[in-house]
Each structure stands twice: as C-alpha cells, then as structure tokens.
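Task: fold both queries, return tokens.
Query 1:
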Amino acid sequence: MSTGAARGRRHSGSPLDILRIFAKLGVTCFGGPIAHIGYFRDEFVTRRQWLDEPAFADLVGLSQFLPGPASSQVGFSVGLMRGGYLGGLAAWLGFTLPSALALVLFAYGASALHGAAGEGLLHGLKLVAVAIVAQAVLGMARSLCPDRPRASIATLALGLMMVSPGSLSQIAVIALGAGAGLVLCRGTAQPISDNAAMPISRRMGVVFLALFGALLALAFAPARDGAFALFGAFYRCGALVFGGGHVVLPLLRDAVVASGWVSDSAFLAGYGAAQAVPGPLFTFAAYLGALANIPSSGPPGGAGGAVVALLAIFLPGLLVLMGTLPFWHALRGRADARAAMAGINAAVVGLLAAALYNPVFASAVHGGADFAVAAAGFVLLVVWRAPPLLVVLAGAAAGVGLGLAA
C-alpha cells in the first residue's frame, strides 16, 4: 500500500464498522491472548491492511510492558488508530461483550458444556489456536526477522522464555531485545511508516496517566459501599497484573474468594466456563461481579455488579495505554528508537514462538490425531488462505469427532 493510500485510510473507519468487525472476532477468537494476537494480525495486517507489520509488532511489544490484558490493549489500539476514541471504544465493546454476556448467563445458571461432544468441541478450538499462532509466528518471523542479527535475537528470546517463563521474564526479554537492537540493528532498522495514526495528544496522554494514578490511589482506600468496594477490588487487579490472561487469576481469587464475596467452588466453576468462551479471559470479572455478595454492605452483584467489575478490571489497562501511546508513537520515529524497536520486534517473535510451544501446543496436542488437525488448520490458513472463521468451524467439528470417537 502506498503512503498516500495509507493517509487516505486514517480515521476512515466508522465506529459501527469497527464494532461489527471486532464483534465477529469476539465470537471467534478462542485460545487466549497469544492466539488473539494471531487473529488480529491476520485481520488487520494481512487482510484489511489497517496497519503494517512493524506498527502492529510495536503495539504488541508495548502491551507486554503495560499492566492489563495484552490482546485487548492491542485491539483497542487498532480501533483507536482507525476511528479515534469512538473507534477504540467500539473495538473494546465488540471484542469484550460476547464472552462477558456468556459468562453472566452462566452465572445465572446457564449450563456449561459437558460430555464427550462438549469436551471435544473445546479441544478442537484449542487445536485451531495452535494453527492460528503458528501462522502468526511464521508471518511475523518473515517480516521482522529477515537477517541474522534479528533472527538471533528472536532465537535468544525464545530460549530465555523456555528456560524462565512468566510475565516478568517477558518484560526482561523485551528490554534485552531493545538493548540488542541498539547494538546490532542500527543499519537494518527500517523507517517507520505513517499509516498508524495517533489521535491522542501528549497533553491528553498526561491526563490519562494522572487519571490512572488517581483511581489506583482511590482503589486502595477503604470503601464501605458495595459498588465502590467492588470497583476498587477489580481496578486493583487490572492495574497490578502484567501479562494478562491467567496471570490475573490469583489476584482475582484473593479479591473475591479470600474476602468471602464468592465461594471457592463458584470461582472454579466460573473459571472452567471462561475456558469455553472466546474473547479475553478478563471477562471472567463479569461472572464474579454478578455473583459478588459483600456482607458488610449488601450484595452489589447481579447485572449491575457484572458491569462494575467488567469496567473496573479493564479500565486501568486502557488508561495507561492511552497515556503511553502518544509518547511511544513519537519516540519510535527516532533512529536509535527504530533500532531498539527492531530488536524489540524480533524479541516479540521469540516470545510468540515460545508461547506457541507452551502453553498453546503443549496444552492442546496430545497425540497424532491432534497434531494432524492442527497441521490441517495451519495448511488451510497459510496455503489455502481460508478465512479464520472457516478454520475455527472445521477445527471445532474435528474436535467433536475426536471426542465422540474416544
């Protein structure tokens, strides 16, 4: 795409179009945050060309540094750059509401998937995630690791993550990638393209960061009212977790189970249901908010509690993202910053490759038949260029077949 064409596409997406596109992703994106990033790359870099590979990788790298749900932050950023603030809101709503609504229904007694067919369906979706992540790793490696220095950085990042997995290790690996890029990638880093617009000014960035800090201080203050106590507990969880996804579970359990708001059995049942729905795992907060019962002030649960908990857990990550983006966007235009970003992007490829093995591959592929299904999905995506939705449906059907045959 030419630069002129890219400029013409800036902020040209209507919020309704963005909502529609992200709603489709919200009902098809199974497999956790790493798989979500693979879906986003296929949709917005490969198919729609809303931003290029380096700009997308920059967003992925930034999301690893910040607290909050990484894939939701990437999706919100894509919507923000495409359609401004309303575009970002539409992206978040479309991607988040399907799984949040499903989990609230489960909290009200909707049955979970049981039996061989239900378990096979979930297993098939995990196998699709293997194919999706493998496609993303391959495509990003081709674009972001085309030479020896960057391929070496990616391989080193892969090795370090395999030896020492965890969210803190992710941050360390990205920092090492930046340092290696400054040393090894000064002659290879490409100029930053301008097709990723930034609708947030630096002044507004400071406002968002100040609001993030002020709400965090309030979240630690004692609260007698049930709704404020609920908001504070979930805001703390969203603000203090790095890596997103399953990393937030211990914080949530401490917030709602240890305090007596939700029983341990209900917490575990909801966590199981959260594995059965697409979209971000942070929507587990809606289930917990619907069930929350704060004895000292009466139950703020139900639909209102679900809304409070959902907004509270996502808000800190989105505020700190909007506060950081304008400074990140300006910094990445400098020559030394481009070299560092080249190293960071290569490290992100290594991170995704490590996640492809564990937990995506290791938790899904348990035998030859599983591997065959995952490989078939990969070929459909890469060679046949089949739509991801078709691959999701085919993988789910194959999983049901394997479950019934077992």
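Query 1 returned. Query 2:
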Amino acid sequence: MVKDYTDVLILSASYGGGHNQVARALTQELQLQAPGLKIITIDYCDLLYPLINRISQFSYIQSIRHFPVGYALYYQATGNISPDSFWQKRLNRMGYSELIMLVNRLEPRVVISTFPLPAGVLSQMKEAGVLNVPIVTVITDMCVHSQWIHPKTDLYLVGSHEVALGLEKRGIPKERISVTGIPILPVFKQTIDPDKVRREFGFDPGVKVILFMGGNDGIFGINNFCFLLRDLPSSVESVIITGSNQDLYERLQSPGYRKYRVRAFKHVDNVAGLMKVSDLLVTKAGGVTISEALAQGLPMVIFKPTPGHEMANAAYLARHRAAFVTKRERSLKKVINRMIADDQFRLRFRRNCLKIAAPDSAEKAARLILKLLTPATRQTTTFNNPPERREILA
C-alpha cells in the first residue's frame, strides 16, 4: 500500500455547513501556528457512500424544511443512547473497515472529528487496539447529545461552560474537556476596518444594516420579505444571503423589491466584515453562525429554530440575552423594528454578545491539538480482508 503520511486527519460532513466550516477554521489556525503541518480533511459520509451521501444531504434539508417534528423526534430519541447499547454499537461500525484502511494509509498523528458519527467509530477502533493516536472531538453546537460522547475520546473541545458541565454530568472527566468556543475562522479575531468594509459593500454613510442569513440553504420559512421590510426607515439597508435558495434569490430581484433598500447575495466571501458593520442579524441558530456573530458583537434574532440542536443553541443565546427567538413573521417584524429603532436597547444586546464571544476559539483549539500530536513514528495497522475503499479528500 502506498503511504500518504499526514499529521492531522479531520473527519467532517456536509450536513448544515457548520461541520466543514469548523474543519476549515482548525486547518487555517493549525497552519498559522505550525507552518508545514500536513492536514487532510475527509467528508466521512463521502468516504462511505458517495452517491447516498448526496441523496441523504438533500433528504436532511427537506426534513428540516418540511418535517421538523420528525427530525426533532429523531434528535430526542438518540439524545441519551448509552455507549454500550445495541444501536450505538451498530452506529460505531458504520465505516469501520474503510476508516481503518484510511488511517493505515495516512498514519495521522492525531484525528479530529467535527461530526459525531466518526467520533464513535474512532472510539471503537481505539478500544479494539487498531488505533493508537489521540482522538479529538469538536462539538459544534451549544448542547450535549449522546452521539458526540464516546469512552475513548481523548479531548472534547466545546463551545461553552454549560456544555462542559453537561459532559461532566454524563461521566466525562473534567481533564478531558476544554472550553475553547466553537472554532471559527481566524479572520474573526483580526482587526477589521468598518469604513473599508462599508466602501466594499457600497453602504451609504450612517446607514443601518440588517443582515439576513440562514446557513447554506438561506433563510427559509420567510415567504414575504416585503412584509418585513416595508415599514423600515429609509436609513436602513437589508442584505439577504440566500445561499443555495435560488427561488428566494430570484424573487428578491423582482420589481416588487426595488423600492426597498435590499440587496441579495448567494454567497459572501467577507462574512466577518459584513457582520462587523451590520447592526442586526436575522438567522437560523447554527452553532458556527451564532459563534461568528458573537465574535463581532452582532445582536441576533433567531427565526424558527429547528427542534433539536438549533433550539438548544437559540435557548443558550436567549439565556444570555444575546438574541431574541421568534417563530412568527409578525413578531419577527416587531423585534426587528424595535432593535433598529432603539439604539440603547440594541447596544445592551451587543454587550451581552461580546461577554460570551470566543473570537480566538480556533487559536485555543489549535494549541491544544498541537500538544496532543504524537511523535512522527509510523506504524502500520493491519486489517484482514478489507472491502473496497471509497474515499474523497476534501
């Protein structure tokens, strides 16, 4: 077998976008702290079933959109599964042989999971004695769920002290948990010139900016942006990031929206800058998006959080008075108008955001990961009669 040695192997997945974003943040920060370090990121679900992965991603989005109750039931049902249960053991065998072959070829010095499924498989491998390097699990939401928790994990990187306490209550030793914040791109800890960003986006001086974001799939569930925007003062501009929601993007280009100060983008490269100059963010409650907004001191309105991890993230923000949470367009409109009109009210939310922000989360995480790196001695793991390998390097 031809070896392709690497130092750090990151196992991620393309569900919701956050897992891959955390992987990118860690990669950038590790390379900043240790230039020359070889890092490879694998989409774990692509490693197993490339075609099925595409179908399941589509099904995941559709279930979130049209059957959130079903997703919530699944989330709750798997929330407290014991590591020794029959179903958890079955989950820990998904991709077991493929992952052994991948580790055998790459021989990483540390393996990081930003997605729960491979975290369990890695723990099973370590328990069986076929993996002898540190395992790091990065929990990408502000909540505790059993699918992240496995007995042979060496280090958990978590977003808040509340998550750390939840892990301890589940029996995880305190020394194996570090509160770093959910890792976000290093650009969020850098100094940003607001005037330069305003010129980049063409914002008029003194204008207030409302930013609408909804993850990779854009804001969904809001069908009538005219209703939200029509009573805003002329000194307010709205920027709507539609993601892959092509229908919404095209609708926002229609003549009906020309009288509003609204601009639609499918994607924006300078998200950190845009958040820096925005006054309010209307979004879903993905762990990475809210962590980025907190780092920029950007007050949030969370709209229709999906039952499960998004609801938990929204509740975390609400407890710390960093965001409003609403499920109806009428109440959403009221909150937006209040936040824009009342500067002191909005400023209090901004201060609360900064209190719980972790702009240096990736830096802290990278330092801990580098301390775990095993010496670069290569040992081959054997596996009898392995099946055909299927993998995609991200």
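Both queries returned. Flag for query 2: Residues 275 and 296 are 6 Å apart (CA to CA).
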